Amino acid sequence: MIRCINTPAEANALTLTAISATGTKPNSSCASELSDLKLGSPISRDLALRLIRCGNDDLPALLAAARAAKENFKPGVITYSRKVFLPLTNLCRDYCGYCTFRRDPGEPGAHTMTPDEVLTVARAGEKLGCTEALFSLGDKPELLFPEMRDTLRHLGYKSTLHYLEAMCELVLRETSLLPHPNPGLLSAEWIARLAAVSPSMGLMLETANSALLAPGAAHDNAPDKVPAKRLRTIEEAGKQRVPFTTGLLIGIGETLEDRVDTLLAIRDLHDHYGHIQEVIVQNFRAKPTIPMANSPEPSQGEMLRTVAVARLLMPNANIQAPPNLNAPYYEELLDAGINDWGGISPLTLDYINPERPWPHLEQLRLRTESKGFQLRQRLPVYPEFMSTVMSSPGLLAEKLETVRDSQGLARETRAA
Ligand code: SF4
Question: Which atom number of ligand 1 is nearest to the Cα of residue 99?
Fold first, then answer.
């Protein structure tokens, strides 16, 4: 899914800019406040709002503070998860304006994987040292499409979630991979059911701003993108102590204030339940086939400010940014305080951003090391959340025991 920046337009989109997404003039008086920051203490909303708008003069100080916070949290190491990507079904009842993944039934490329296909990909990944089976899928397609109901009936399942549960169990039972499902909104019952067959799961909050549901906006005709519903799913996972990955998507029509408030909504849930294992800062990339084809992409400067502010708002959280959506600017993301590259596949495409190939793992290792970090392979569940999962005896705990090392990272079977 990742691709090098080839065109002047792309290069321009990634150029550092002093002007925010909303055209706000940068605030140029942040440096002194940054020097007073206490390592490990989260910053306030007020400071975050000023930092996310900081001018280019203050940007080096912001990045330095973010990197110091990262080093205080997890010194010397950057992690990634070696995964296979399993697009269980790309049928989806939502129509997000930035999505290239979803299809309607009958559209070219519309597909629901069979159990054989799932196992074939998982086993191929196993041979390449993968430890994560990332299940990505559209949200409840059977509610909108009779064709999906027929497919599920043919496969022998009542719903997409029943099928997902069975495929997670299949992968868990038949391979050494650990499932990490991203199925969209979930009820309390389904969180519990999926948690029995996967050590972690995910749902991007994307934005806390419900204005993006308005006609013509990014989440128009996307009923599963109501922020309150997504927050409820994340909260329910917290009540059940399920290690949870979430994050924000920047550049989909939100304001800088929205970005801070989305991060704060995630922080509030984590403060309450302690279950947010990873916060992803993902940047919108325009593609010719999407409704938002002509929407401006966030600049590199916006991305770096958002990542750095995320780090300072949650200094002790795992912060991730996808390298394929920011290539070739890996070093800059490290400077902004990430401690994880997310899931990277040596085998499968990033089906959400298929035009942007994953970085070669050896290249990623060399570039990570050139910034003074060791690159380590992790499991889909982060080390600090593993004991919660392993406290319930069963297949999941047994599998984790066989694939983790003494630090809770992946027992590496081959060099990246
Ligand atoms: S982003 Fe997810 S929910 Fe939105 S249309 Fe694409 S697959 Fe569906």
Answer: 6
The token duo for 323 is: 């390298």
Report residue 179 as tokens: 């499932």
- Nearest alpha carbon, ligand 1 atom 2: 138
Mean pLDDT value across the chain: 90
Substitution candidate for ligand 1 out of 89, 96, 213 with most atoms within 8 A of CB: 96
* Ligand 1: centre distance to CA 92 (Å): 6
Which pLDDT value is given to residue 144?
97
pLDDT over 70 percentage in the chain: 89
Domain ranges of the chain: 43-403
User: CA 406 to CA 219: how far, in whole Å?
Assistant: 43
Question: Of the CATH numbers 1.20.1250.20, 3.40.50.720, 3.20.20.60, 3.20.20.70, which one belongs to the domain with range 43-403?
Answer: 3.20.20.70
Give me the mean pLDDT over the 144-163 stretch.
98
Among protein residues, the one with the nearest Cα to ligand 1's atom 7 is: 138
